[in-house]
Amino acid sequence: MGRGKIEIKKIENANTRQVTFSKRRVGLLKKANELAILCDAEVAVIVFSSTGKLFEFSNAGMRQTLSRYNKCLDSSKSALIEKSPEAALVENKPQKQDFKEVDTLKDEIAKLKEKQMQLLDKDLTDMSMEELQHLEGRLNEGLLSVKERKEQLLMDQLEHSRVQEQRAMLENETLRRQVQELRGFLPSSEHSSRTAYLELYPEERSNSLVKHGSGSPDIVHNCAVDLQLGLASEDCRKRKAPEKDNCSSNSRSLMSLM
Questions:
Q1: Given pLDDT bands bounded at 50, 70 and 90, which one contains residue 34?
Q2: Where are the coiled-coil regions (predicted)?
Q3: Which residues neighbour 132 within 8 Å (Cβ) at sequence distance 6 or greater?
Q4: In terms of residue numbers, what domain contains 70?
């Protein structure tokens, strides 16, 4: 089987492309050398790689071959100058076509500038009724598109404002809840600190109970008893006198028994 044909196109892989370049370059220079030897020809090959590296081959010297090439170019140019006017006209036809295309493009640019001036309401003197109506329609379409764009921008701004308002409301609600939680936490902590203080200083507790009129009935009763003892009346003294006599008689009887 013969070797299949390779499709000639750019190799995308950089490594594969570099390997192929090296192989093909060596083969090209080898073929050029063989051609120069077999056919007694003056051959020169100049190759630049994709990275800008120079590779060259010349069997007679590169400078000598290039000077010979330049002489041939000069002689061909002089031969072109000495040609007949008819040949010169044939060669100048493509240039004339290029000039025509340039003139056409200039005319189109001028027309577009004129239309632009008309759209800006700066040059309406030479326009007919039909052209004015057409211009009016285009301006109305432009105004409608401008209004639609403005409405769209306003709607976007309103939507953005609503989103920001909702965020602010949520943040305010969160702050209110936090404040309520702090308010509910402060009284309990104050009460616990007050209880701990009274446990450390019980005298302060009793004084506070007397001041505020709070406490158990026994404490109030004891206070009342102390006050009665401090302010004894005559009836109490009379009651205490027989008790003293009884105590003295009992002591005397005990002494007699002893």
A1: very high
A2: 95-122
A3: 124
A4: 14-82
